Amino acid sequence: MKKLLFVISQLYRGGAETSLVNLLNHLDKNKYEIDLVILNQSPVKGAVSLIDSIPSWVKVCDAYKNRNLIGLKIKGKFIYNQNQKGRYYLSALDFVRNKMYDWAFFVGEWHSPEFVAVQVNAHKKAAWIHNDLSKAEYFNEEEYFHYYDYFDKYIFVSENSLKSSCKKYKFLKDKAVTIYNINDVNKIKVASEEPVDDYNFGKKLTFVTCANFRQQKNHLRQVEVMKVLKRRGLDFSWINIGAITDKSIVSRAKKLAKDYNLENDFLILGPKSNPYKYISRADAVTVLSDYESWSMVITEAKILGVPVISTKTSGALEQIENGKTGILTDFTVTEIADSIESFIKSKELQDNIRKNINNFDNTKEILESFTEFVSFEGKNVKTELKQDKILYIIDDINYLGGAHIATKYQINKLLEKGQDITVFSSSIPKPSVRNELLGIEFLSWKDLREDIIFNMRLFGCLTNKFFTMKEKRFKFKLSYNGKILRENDNFEKNVLWSFEKLFSKYDIICVMSEGSAFKEVVAKVNCKKKIQWVHIDYCDWKDKTEWAIKVTKNDSETWNSYDDIIVLTDNIKQDVCKIYPHLKNRIKVMKNIMPENMIKMKANIKRIDDSRVNFVTVGRVDKQKAYERLVMILGRLKKEGYKFYWTVIGDGNEKSKIENMIIENELDDVMFMEGSKNNPFPYIKDADVFALMSDFEGLPNTIFESLILGVPVIATNVGGVKTQVINGQTGWLVENDEESIYNGIKYILDNPNEVKIMKDKLKSYVYDNEKIYNDTYELFILD
């Protein structure tokens, strides 16, 4: 017997909720043991609860209803941590505690799936999505996909919605499946025969719309359509049934109807516990949403033999064959009105549709697809490759630094070669990052059992049947060290070093950043090869801040256990060898991969102003980039009468401070802080000169990007910049002080023709990617 858990935020009447209840009523109690958790069935005025429709053999936890049980409050004090108690009612947490399910389903994309992801024990987990994620305006992609790695499958209720969603979120492809919404045919037909006492059907032609009042359903357009049809001389009524989810939409719809003299025919009846008696008596059901995944109303109308007129949403395109089983229309007021008029005027069309949907019932096929889904015993095992397993350590995978971007390019090149790559990051990758790194397995703190134990309450761990005695003893030790001995390094000593065991599963480990918090842990790991990547002018950077001093103090010893230390230029290598001479044979020089074709493809923009020299800077707004100094220099130049524009692309902890300085120095009409951009290349391409006035650097990607786009560069002589910026050929190199920078910018403003000469020279610029590709592949090959 399969043990299943379904979790949903609320169970008031709606398409997803109705479908869930229908599924529960169709499942065989002799084959399934089912639990249902409703996380927050708090009262909602006018909403219709579906709890009474749940079959009696399903065990239901109405968490809100049971929230104040005294026993749970006492238990919660010792078992659940503050994060758990802050997010959920104890009754929900207690209901699933110490249970193991074959499948756990989180129903709905409008709420975080964290409960099933983290709080539930199950062999397999699935998230059930009832909309087209590419269009749903309420969908919080970062919150929802924060738990992507916990789920084995993502279930969509239409194939078109699956395709549209996977087009936007490419990483979903391997986990996405389709199971259509199921209906209770007998219940619908019986309910449809009940009498209607608040509307007189048969008096005139009547359309029915069953949709909660929210933006997606576009009731306001519906009023506009009715106005057009009335002006064409068509007399009919339009009934609207659904919860008043957005009161402002209802008010606006009523006002529009009144303004158009439609208030007697555009009727808002609100939520109804039995909408089927209205549907069955309608001349047609209309579903005019901006987007839908799988409309329950369309299927319900077909079951009752009532024609449906629907906009061409992804679900409707699967549910309706235009002109045969319903009417499909485009989304404009005129197109909808034309489709409805054609339907009204053609008795033959109406009869043909009714004939084709007579005795419609797809229950059996849907039930079989669900049964097959939960019966699958296989595992989603990552295909074992012959190549060595590579682990990248990237402390914050979501950070938009140049080193991070370069590392992503590098990873994708290795993937093209069929390498088996995993990424560990302290932060969970955002959807945009998952789309950039398709085919990557991501590890995080969730994969460290010791960290999970560390964050649990002692009694909660000791009474949890899914923890071993060894793990319980470990928790007791952690609690004793922290609470009794008051050890400040309890976490570092007992948890952080547990990564050694996790990381040791890989053949090659590459630490992306010289400032990584994990480089000392990696030093202790037993693996075939360790690589440290240094993306900065190390010797200049290591003593710049207290944090840099702290994070580099053990590098001389730590890097002794690394096989390769990669720096970006020869001069950086020479400087590192001077302070760490014992590492000389391990230090190698390798530039970053630059995606030339992608950079050029994305760099299209029209010029705004040709009369001034346009400078652009792309980089984080922090002390390293020395924006304070730049603002003071530009203030001097403006006062001297020089005309220019200067655009800064980037965000950072000093952005507000720099913006204030710009205003104080009266530069707000010439210096623009544009913030971070997913695509900075049009701004670079549009500029006359790219400028990077940093206090220290490694080998900035942005300089290479500018040269690839044919834009000359002015930059300070720091790190490896002098290998990129060659005076008179690729730009202007200035020393790292205020007066040199001032003179360098002033020279460009005095000699604008030299910018054009430099751009002509850069037409022949070529970046040596092929050599870097080969060096990268060789680096990750074991002898």
List the topology elements:
Layout: E1 2-8, H1 15-26, E2 32-38, E3 59-62, H2 70-79, H3 82-87, H4 90-96, E4 100-107, H5 114-119, E5 121-129, H6 141-145, E6 153-156, H7 159-168, E7 176-178, H8 185-192, E8 206-210, H9 219-231, E9 237-241, H10 247-259, E10 266-270, H11 276-279, E11 284-287, H12 296-303, E12 308-311, H13 316-319, E13 327-329, H14 333-345, H15 347-356, H16 363-375, E14 389-393, H17 402-416, E15 420-424, H18 431-436, E16 441-443, H19 449-454, H20 458-462, H21 469-484, H22 490-494, H23 499-503, E17 508-511, H24 519-524, E18 529-533, H25 538-541, H26 546-552, H27 555-558, E19 564-567, H28 570-579, E20 587-589, H29 596-601, E21 613-618, H30 627-639, E22 644-649, H31 655-664, E23 671-675, H32 681-686, E24 689-692, H33 701-708, E25 713-716, E26 731-734, H34 738-750, H35 752-761, H36 769-779
Parallel strand pairs: 1-2, 1-4, 2-3, 4-5, 5-6, 6-7, 8-9, 8-11, 9-10, 11-12, 12-13, 14-15, 14-17, 15-16, 17-18, 18-19, 19-20, 21-22, 21-24, 22-23, 24-25, 25-26
Helix pairs in contact: 9-10, 9-14, 30-34
